[in-house]
C-alpha cells in the first residue's frame, strides 16, 4: 500500500482497517477551499549543512581526545587542548551542535508537512538558526579556556545558559505558531514527541542551570553536594532522554515510513510508547549515583523506574522495526534503510543495557569504568549518528531535486561507519570488564591483587588504541558523507520555497466509538498535549527533588566539616578549570575494595559546601576524595609537573603552566561573597581579609616545598591546587587500619 508524500502513516489518513474517517478530517461531501502555500526548505538546508560541519568537527575532537588516553603528548603540550579541557568540547559539539542541528533540521522539515503549513515565522527561523550557531561558537571559545561549570553536559557558563534559554523560546514560539496555523486537524505522533521535547528540555535546563554569578564568565551552582548531584543527574540522564531520544523517536515516526513507503505498524503502540516513556524516563536519573552518598530511597526509585523503562523503550524500537514488515527487500538494496535499521537496533541494545546497568550488582562493577563509555557510544554512534546520516541522505536529494552524487560512497559510508562502531564499542566493553574486575580482585591472603590503580590503566591501553581506530573509521565515514552531500547540492538547485496546497482547516467532524477516541480528541489540541506532557514529567521530578531539599535527614551534616579556605577555593577552581573531574572521581563507594584502596567511604555531610559537586563519572585515574595528607606537597608538585616521575607509565599529561602562571586573586572576595549567598557560612571578616589569609596559607605551603628542595613562589597556581588536594577528605577522621 502506498503512502502519499505528505502523509507518513495511517494515523493521518482514513483508517485503513475500517475505512472510517479519523478525527480532524473533513466529513464526506464537504466543500473546503484549497489553499496554496510554500514550505521553507532553506532553513532545513541551513540546519542540515550545520549538522554535517559540526558533526565532522565534533568527531575530530573526539578522536583527538581518545588518542590522549594512550598518547598524552597528543595535546602538543598545550594547556588549551588537554583531555580535561577538550573532552567537554567534544561532548557539547556532538550533542548540541551535531545532534542539536539535526533535530532542528528534522523538525523543521517534518513539522511543516505534518501541519500542511509553512513555519510560523521565517524571521524566527533565521534567529533560531544563527542564535544556535552562536551558542555553539561560544562553547568553542570558552571550554578550551577552562571557563566551565564542570557539570556534565551542562558545562557552559551562565551568560551562555541564558542565551540557550532565549533561543529555545524562539524555537518554541515558531513550533507552536506553526501548529496553531496548521491545515491538518490531527497532530501526528511525531509532533507529540516534539512537544514533549520542548517542554521537558526547558524545565531541565532552567532548573539545572540555577547559578550564582561571580563575574561575567564565572559562577557557582546554587546547589551543593548531594543535592547538586541529584539535580545534575536528573538533568544529565533526561538530557539523554529528551534531547537524544524523544526528538529522534519523533523523526523516526516521520522519516522511516517515508523511506520504506509503509505505514507505522501500530497507532495504539505509539500512544502507549509515548506516555509511558516520558513518565518513566524522568525518574531514572538516580541510577547514575548508585552506591554514592545519595539517600537510599532515591537510589531505589532510580533502579525501579530504570527497569520499567525497558518496556516503553522497546515499544518504540518494535514499532519502528515492524513498520518495515513487507519492505525488507528494500532494506537489502537501500543503504539509507540500512542506516535506519542499525540505528533502531542500537537504540534497542542501549535501552536494554541501560536498565541492566541500573541493577546494583551490575552497577557495582560497571560504574566509573569504560563499560559506561561503550554503552553511551552504542547509543550516540548507532542511534543518533546513523539516524542523522539516514535523514541527511534522504532529505538533501529531495530538496535539491537531484539524485545522490554517489551511491558507492553511500554504501561505503554505511560499512565503514558500522565497522567504526564495532571497533569502538567492543574494545571499550572489554576494557570496562577488565577495569571492574581488576579493581575488585583480592588474593587468597585477602589483600588487593592490584593495589596500584596504574596497573589497570596499563592493562587496557591496547583497547584504547582500538577505540581511537574505531573513532577514526567513523569520522572517515562522516567526511565522505559530507563530500557526497555537498557534491549532490552542487549538482542540483535548492527548492527554497516548495509549492504545496491543502484545504483550509475544515470544520471538525467527530465520529463516535473506537477505543482510541479519547486520545484522538487530545491529539487535535496542542496546548492540552503540552500541559499533559508537563504534568507527566513533573510528577517524578518533584517526588525525587523536593524531599532531598526539604528533609534534612537526607543530607546529615558533620560538625567537623568546615568551608574551604580562600586559597582552597581558588585551588578548587583551578581543578575545575583543568577538567580534572573528567578523569578523577571524588566518591569512595562503600565496597571493601574501595575502602582498602582509598580509605573510608564518602559521607553525604562531607559535601555540603561543594558548589558544584565533583563526584565524577569516570575513573581514568584514581579516586581523590581521600587524597589529603596521603602524599607530601612535593609529590603533588612533581606529579603535576611531570606525572611519570611519580607514576611511571602514567597517561596523565603534565601541567607545567601551573608552576609558571600567577594565581589571579583579584576576585577572591567576590567568590566567597557569591558562595555566602548560596549558603556557605563565611562571615564578613573572612571575606574582607580573604586575600591576606590566602597569602598566609600559600606562604606556608611554599616554605614547606622549599624544605623539600623545591623553590616556587607562593603566588603560583600550583600552590593553590596543592592546598585544595591536601584538604580533600581530611574533615573526618580516616578509618584506622
From TrEMBL:
Task: Please give the Gene3D superfamilies that the UniProt record associates with this protein.
Answer: Cytochrome c oxidase-like, subunit I domain (1.20.210.10), Cytochrome c-like domain (1.10.760.10)
Point to the regions of Polar residues compositional bias: 1-12
The family assignment reads: Belongs to the heme-copper respiratory oxidase family.
Spell out where the chain crosses the membrane.
Answer: 47-71, 91-111, 123-146, 158-180, 187-207, 233-255, 267-284, 304-324, 336-352, 372-396, 408-430, 468-486, 527-550
Q: Which residues are listed for heme b 2; high-spin binding in this entry?
A: 375
Which biological process terms from the Gene Ontology are attached to this UniProt entry?
aerobic respiration; electron transport coupled proton transport; respiratory electron transport chain
Q: Where is the Cytochrome oxidase subunit I profile domain?
A: 47-489
Q: Where is the Cytochrome c domain?
A: 566-729
**The keyword Transport is annotated on this UniProt entry:** yes
* Keywords linked to the UniProt accession: Cell membrane, Copper, Electron transport, Heme, Iron, Membrane, Metal-binding, Oxidoreductase, Respiratory chain, Translocase, Transmembrane, Transmembrane helix, Transport
PROSITE patterns in the record, alphabetically?
A: COX1 (PS50855), COX1_CUB (PS00077), CYTC (PS51007)
Q: In which pathway does it act?
A: Energy metabolism; oxidative phosphorylation
Write down what this protein is called.
cytochrome-c oxidase
The taxonomic lineage of its organism, from the top, reads: Bacteria, Pseudomonadati, Bacteroidota, Cytophagia, Cytophagales
Q: Which InterPro entries match?
A: Cyt_c-like_dom, Cyt_c-like_dom_sf, Cyt_c_oxase-like_su1_dom, Cyt_c_oxase-like_su1_sf, Cyt_C_Oxase_1, Cyt_c_Oxase_su1_BS, Cyt_c_oxidase_cbb3_su1, Cyt_c_oxidase_monohaem-su/FixO
Instruction: Tell me which residues bind Cu cation.
Output: 237, 287-288
Q: Where is this region: Disordered?
A: 1-29
Q: What topology does the record note for this protein and the membrane?
A: Multi-pass membrane protein
Q: In the UniProt record, does the keyword Cell membrane occur?
A: yes
A molecular function GO annotation: heme binding
Where in or outside the cell is it found?
Cell membrane
The cofactors named for this UniProt entry are: heme b; Cu(2+); heme
**Assigned GO CC terms:** plasma membrane
Q: Which residues bind heme b 1; low-spin?
A: 90, 377
What organism is this sequence from? Spirosoma arboris
Question: How is the cofactor bound, as the UniProt entry phrases it?
Answer: Binds 1 copper ion per subunit, denoted as copper B. Binds 2 heme groups per subunit, denoted as high- and low-spin.
- Tell me which EC number(s) this protein carries: 7.1.1.9
Amino acid at each position: 500500500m502506498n503512502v502519499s508524500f505528505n502523509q507518513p502513516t495511517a494515523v493521518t489518513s482514513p483508517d485503513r482497517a475500517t475505512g472510517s474517517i479519523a478525527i480532524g478530517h473533513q466529513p464526506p461531501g464537504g466543500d473546503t477551499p484549497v489553499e496554496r502555500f510554500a514550505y521553507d526548505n532553506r532553513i532545513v538546508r541551513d540546519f542540515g549543512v550545520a549538522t554535517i560541519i559540526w558533526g565532522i568537527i565534533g568527531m575530530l575532537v573526539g578522536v583527538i581526545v581518545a588518542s590522549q588516553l594512550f598518547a598524552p603528548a597528543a595535546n602538543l603540550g598545550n594547556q588549551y587542548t588537554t583531555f580535561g579541557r577538550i573532552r567537554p568540547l567534544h561532548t557539547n559539539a556532538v550533542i548540541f551542535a551535531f545532534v542539536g542541528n539535526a533535530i532542528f533540521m528534522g523538525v523543521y522539515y517534518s513539522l511543516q508537512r505534518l501541519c500542511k503549513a509553512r513555519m510560523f515565522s521565517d524571521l524566527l527561523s533565521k534567529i533560531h538558526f544563527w542564535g544556535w550557531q552562536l551558542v555553539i561558537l561560544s562553547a568553542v571559545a570558552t571550554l578550551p579556556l577552562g571557563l566551565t561549570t564542570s557539570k556534565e553536559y551542562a558545562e557552559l557558563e551562565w551568560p551562555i545558559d541564558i542565551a540557550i534559554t532565549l533561543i529555545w523560546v524562539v524555537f518554541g514560539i515558531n513550533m507552536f505558531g506553526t501548529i496553531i496555523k496548521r491545515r491538518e486537524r490531527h497532530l501526528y505522533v511525531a509532533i507529540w514527541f516534539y512537544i514533549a521535547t520542548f517542554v521537558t528540555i526547558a524545565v531541565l535546563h532552567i532548573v539545572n542551570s540555577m547559578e550564582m554569578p561571580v563575574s561575567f564568565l564565572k559562577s557557582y551552582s546554587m546547589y551543593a553536594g548531594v543535592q547538586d548531584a541529584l539535580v545534575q543527574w536528573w538533568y544529565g540522564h533526561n538530557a539523554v532522554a529528551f534531547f537524544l531520544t524523544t526528538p529522534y523517536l519523533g523523526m523516526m515516526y516521520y522519516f522511516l515510513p517515508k523511506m520504506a513507503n509503509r505505514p507505522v505498524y501500530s497507532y495504539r503502540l505509539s500512544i502507549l510508547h509515548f506516555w509511558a516513556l516520558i513518565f518513566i524516563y524522568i525518574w531514572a536519573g538516580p541510577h547514575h549515583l548508585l552506591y554514592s552518598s545519595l539517600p537510599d530511597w532515591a537510589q531505589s526509585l532510580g533502579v525501579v523506574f530504570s527497569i520499567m523503562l525497558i518496556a516503553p523503550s522497546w515499544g518504540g524500537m518494535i514499532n519502528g522495526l515492524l513498520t518495515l514488515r513487507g519492505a525488507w527487500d528494500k532494506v537489502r538494496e537501500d543503504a539509507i534503510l540500512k542506516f535506519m535499521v542499525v540505528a533502531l537496533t542500537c537504540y534497542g541494545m542501549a535501552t536494554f543495557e541501560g536498565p541492566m546497568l541500573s541493577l546494583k550488582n551490575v552497577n557495582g562493577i560497571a560504574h566509573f569504568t569504560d563499560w559506561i563509555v561503550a554503552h553511551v557510544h552504542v547509543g550516540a554512534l548507532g542511534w543518533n549518528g546513523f539516524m542523522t546520516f539516514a535523514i541527511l541522505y534522504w532529505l538533501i536529494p529531495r530538496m535539491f531535486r537531484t539524485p545522490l552524487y554517489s551511491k558507492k560512497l553511500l554504501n561505503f559510508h554505511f560499512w565503514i561507519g558500522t565497522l567504526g562502531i564495532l571497533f569502538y564499542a567492543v574494545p571499550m566493553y572489554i576494557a570496562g570488564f577488565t577495569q571492574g574486575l581488576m579493581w575488585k580482585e583480592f588474593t587468597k591472603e585477602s589483600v588487593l591483587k592490584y593495589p596500584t590503580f596504574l596497573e589497570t590503566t596499563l592493562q587496557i591501553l591496547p583497547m584504547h588504541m582500538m577505540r581511537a581506530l574505531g573513532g577514526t573509521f567513523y569520522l572517515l565515514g562522516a567526511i565522505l558523507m559530507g563530500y557526497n552531500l555537498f557534491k549532490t547540492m552542487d549538482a542540483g538547485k535548492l527548492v527554497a520555497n516548495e509549492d504545496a496546497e491543502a484545504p483550509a482547516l475544515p470544520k471538525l467532524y467527530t465520529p463516535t466509538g473506537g477505543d482510541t477516541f479519547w486520545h484522538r480528541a487530545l491529539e487535535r489540541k496542542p496546548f492540552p498535549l503540552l500541559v499533559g506532557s508537563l504534568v507527566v514529567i513533573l510528577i517524578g521530578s518533584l517526588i525525587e527533588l523536593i524531599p532531598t531539599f526539604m528533609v534534612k535527614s537526607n543530607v546529615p551534616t558533620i560538625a567537623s566539616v568546615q568551608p574551604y579556605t580562600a586559597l582552597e577555593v581558588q585551588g578548587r577552581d583551578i581543578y575545575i578549570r583543568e577538567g580534572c573531574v573528567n578523569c578523577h572521581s571524588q566518591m569512595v563507594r562503600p565496597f571493601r575494595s574501595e575502602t582498602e584502596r582509598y580509605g573510608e567511604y564518602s559521607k553525604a555531610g562531607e559535601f555540603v559546601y561543594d558548589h558544584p559537586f565533583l563526584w565524577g563519572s569516570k575513573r581514568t585515574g584514581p579516586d581523590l576524595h581521600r587524597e589529603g595528607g596521603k602524599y607530601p606537597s612535593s609529590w603533588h608538585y612533581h606529579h603535576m609537573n611531570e606525572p611519570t616521575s611519580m607514576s611511571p607509565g602514567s597517561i596523565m599529561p603534565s601541567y607545567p603552566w601551573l608552576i609558571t602562571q600567577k594565581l589571579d586573586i583579584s576576585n577572591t572576595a567576590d567568590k566567597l561573597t557569591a558562595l555566602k549567598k548560596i549558603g556557605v557560612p563565611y562571615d564578613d571578616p573572612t571575606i574582607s581579609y580573604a586575600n591576606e589569609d590566602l597569602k598566609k596559607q600559600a606562604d606556608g605551603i611554599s616554605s614547606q616545598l622549599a624544605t623539600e628542595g623545591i623553590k616556587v613562589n607562593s603566588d603560583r597556581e600550583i600552590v593553590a591546587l596543592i592546598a585544595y588536594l591536601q584538604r580533600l577528605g581530611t574533615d573526618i577522621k580516616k578509618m584506622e587500619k
